[in-house]
Amino acid sequence: MLRLAKQLVSAGLVLAVCVAVFWNGLYGSFFFDDAANILYVESLGLTEFSLPALQEAWNSGISGPSGRPVAQLSFALNHYFSGFDPFAFKLTNLVIHLLAGSLVFFTARRLLIAPVFAGLVAALWLLSPIQLTSVLYVVQRMTSLSALFVLAGFFLHIVGRERGGRAGAVWLMVAWCLFWPLAFFSKETGALFPLFVLAWELIVRRNKSGYLDGFARVLSAVVGLGFAAGLVYAVSPSGQWLWAGYGMRSFSLTERVLTEGRVLWFYLGLIIFPRLEAFGLYHDDIALSTSLVEPWTTFPAWLGLIGLVWVAWRTRRQAPLLSFGIAWFLVGHILESTILPLEIAHEHRNYLPLFGVALIGGWALERALAHPGWQKTLGMVLILGLLGYSVLVTTLRAHQFGDEIRRTQIESQYHRESARTNYEAGRALVARLEMVSADSPQYSFARSHYEQAGKLDPDFKSSWLGLIHLNCSVGRPAESEWIDQLSRRLRESPFGPGDRSVLFGIKEMSNAGTLCLSRSEVERLFAAAGANPTTTLSSRAILHSWLADYLTLTVRDLPAAQAELDKSLAIAPYNPSNQLKRAQLAFLQGHRDEAHVLLDRLGDEGLVNSERETAAMLKDCLDSAGSARCVGK
């Protein structure tokens, strides 16, 4: 009982320290992809517990092939209890982090002998600075939720395999039939669960039992067949969508793969030697590897990764936890740090892989303490020094993230070559500080950040919209050079999903009455994006619809708006939102019969709550004798 009490006190102390370390960061804002995935998704504004509302939240995701419905539902529940309060969303993320850290402890306890070393592993995992964005960057709840369910399933798999019998089978069923799907539908990285389990079966369990049993053999065969089937699908015509993203990137498949070799060592450097200035929300300042010798570190990086695989293989019997820790880290990066056309680097990709590194740290300390003398002293100094320094760096980072201007200005000093970091620094100044005139220091600082972002990345577009918005805010006209640059980049540089936000921003600025561009300039920018050969059909449909909104609400040119909306519907004829807009346009133009037909054809399927309300109001207006009174609505 005394030992248990000490363990509970120690665990409580670690969790309390974790809360204290992250607390200041909870006061920060939403940023980056939080807007597109949370704030702009109407279905997440949950106000009632009804099946249709929950289904809308479940189906509201725009990230990944699955839409990540479990994470989306959690965002909706957050809104139900707190509205779009960033503190509440970040606090929820911290709770998830603490739960995942508890699972790290229990899993490490199953792998290590003494609870003190399992506690050390959990502390290293919870308090590492590289974990910060998975907590304080709200949308990365997708990452932390997926990791939570992977860890839960992995722990129950170990329990089930070690217990055996009917009780063991029940635990295995829960792990594979409940937690694995929850992990996958939180984020697609949950698909790696069978590989984590297989690594444990082939290394740790095999080392204990001395052989592979039937379950492990079947799992090996199934995973092998699944991997082979995945390769066949990836190279088949049906799987070409997997590679379509490279058409919207500034790098090729070869360049990404070569660069990721260096990126993995960069991640390990952030974990083992955390330096405050090396961390950041964006790492678009990492140079691409164009060959094995350019830059020269590419070849040694890949040679080192091959060396890690060799170490894992050679130590699988003599030091299975060392081997398993390496395998866990590498498996954790198979999806996001290899061949898929994702951005080059993000710290949150280490949220789950970090467990492998922390496990090696706990194992190494356990080995060192078994040998009295200098090895014991050195092991204690290194591990405790790393833990203490990690706490310090994480605390400083959390303080940065507690205020958007503080975060962006500090990161822009640390990452001067990052276009995105400079853009965010300018955007934060514009959003938070009042622009009295174009002579104010804030205007100069924001303009400098935006211009630097545009110079650093020849494909970056948001910085030029930022400059336009900046001048509009202080009553100045947008400079023609900015419009020319933005138009050229929209037309010629790869057009990614994030670039749609530029056109969305133009539409929203016009609706808010803060846009200082003429109609011809707005249409020129939309036409440039539409003429880009890398713009997908789905993006073209959205752009035509947004331009129709601009022409309707700002210009009041209904025939031109109808022409744009018809172009959108020609691409995506079954889009319910655009069908509703088309019915509204028909009504506004006095074509009541056409509006009736369009509205009857539409129904309610696929509409969100506000659109259903609009459709009901429109129907009421069409059915009432005095429909003219509805035009103003």
Task: Summarize the structure in words.
Among the domains are: 2-30 and 84-211 and 243-399, no CATH class; 577-633, no CATH class. The protein is 69% helix and 0% strand. The chain has helices at 2-23, 34-39, 51-58, 69-82, 86-111, 115-127, 132-136, 141-163, 165-184, 193-209, 214-235, 253-272, 298-314, 320-332, 354-369, 374-401, 404-414, 419-432, 441-456, 462-473, 480-492, 500-512, 519-531, 537-555, 558-571, 576-588, 592-602, 609-623. The longest helix is centred in the middle third of the chain and has 28 residues, at 374-401. The relative contact order is 0.07. The mean pLDDT is 91.
The 3D shape can be described as globular
Name the helix and strand elements from N-terminus to C-terminus, one letter apiece.
HHHHHHHHHHHHHHHHHHHHHHHHHHHH
Determine the N-to-C terminus distance.
Answer: 70 Å
Sheet with most strands: none
- The stretches of 5 or more residues where confidence is low (pLDDT under 50) are none
Give the strand tally.
0
